[in-house]
């Protein structure tokens, strides 16, 4: 039936004209709808472009704003790094004002590091949880620092889970065994010796050439002994 209709359109000029007229009538009846769709698409494209341009500008502003704060962090002037020096912004204000940009998220990371060094563990955790990055190694580092904050807050099991998350986020031969060792030690600190043994064994099995292997073997034996008591 479909092929017969196609042949009719090709061979019968009247049928073709009728079909074109129907199409024109459909367009005429729905022209406002089509115009609305086209306008919405155009606005979306323009809006997306303007948003991208605005984010780029704000990201550059954030990078410039926290330049001095990075210097203070490296010099261990933690209060100035976090709160500014009266003339230059600190990580806290950059994170608050530019939090939607990559640089603003990085300010959250630095604010978490500085707060951790100050012993403000819950504050550090809050900042570090706001940090999100497509730099997989840096994101893994943020998970590990969250583990440090939780451990200091006495949340040993949560700390161990975050250390394991860090180890598994872009797993690699250099950092992953370090994070796994921290996870195992956190489990051991929480008297979860069987879990500690399992993680020590992962270091031994998955990273046999890492510098952590000898300690993993030693601590695994200790954890196995404690698990039997």
What does this 3D model show about the protein?
With about 230 residues, the protein is an all-alpha fold. It has 2 domains: about 45-130, no CATH class; about 135-229, Tetratricopeptide repeat domain (Serine Threonine Protein Phosphatase 5, Tetratricopeptide repeat, Alpha Horseshoe), CATH 1.25.40.10. About 80% of the residues lie in helices and about 0% in strands. The chain has 13 helices and no strands. Helix 7 packs parallel to helix 9 (about 135-150) and helix 10 (about 155-170) runs antiparallel to helix 11. The longest helix is centred in the first third of the chain and has 35 residues, at about 30-65. The radius of gyration is 30 Å and the shape is flat. The N and C termini lie far apart (about 85 Å). The relative contact order is 0.06. Residues about 1-10 and about 45-50 have low confidence and may be disordered.
Can you lay out the helices and strands and say which pair or pack?
Layout: H1 2-11, H2 13-29, H3 31-65, H4 67-74, H5 78-83, H6 91-97, H7 102-118, H8 121-130, H9 136-152, H10 156-168, H11 176-189, H12 193-206, H13 213-227
Helix pairs in contact: 1-2, 6-7, 7-8, 7-9, 8-9, 9-10, 10-11, 11-12, 12-13
CATH class of the largest domain: Mainly Alpha
Calculate the terminal CA-CA distance, rounded to whole Å: 83 Å
Q: Give the count of helical stretches.
A: 13
Biggest beta sheet attributes:
none
Mean pLDDT over the full residue set: 84
Number of strands: 0
Structural class by helix and strand composition = mainly alpha
- Uncertain regions: pLDDT < 50 for 5+ in a row? 1-11, 47-52
**What is the CATH architecture assignment of the largest domain?**
Alpha Horseshoe
Could you state the CATH homologous superfamily of the largest domain? Tetratricopeptide repeat domain
Examine the coordinates and then state which fold CATH places here, giving the name of the CATH topology of the largest domain: Serine Threonine Protein Phosphatase 5, Tetratricopeptide repeat
Question: What sort of overall outline do the alpha carbons produce when their principal axes are compared?
Answer: flat
Radius of gyration: 30 Å
Strand-residue fraction? under 5%
* Total domain units: 2
- Run of helices and strands: HHHHHHHHHHHHH
- The share of residues in helices is over 70%
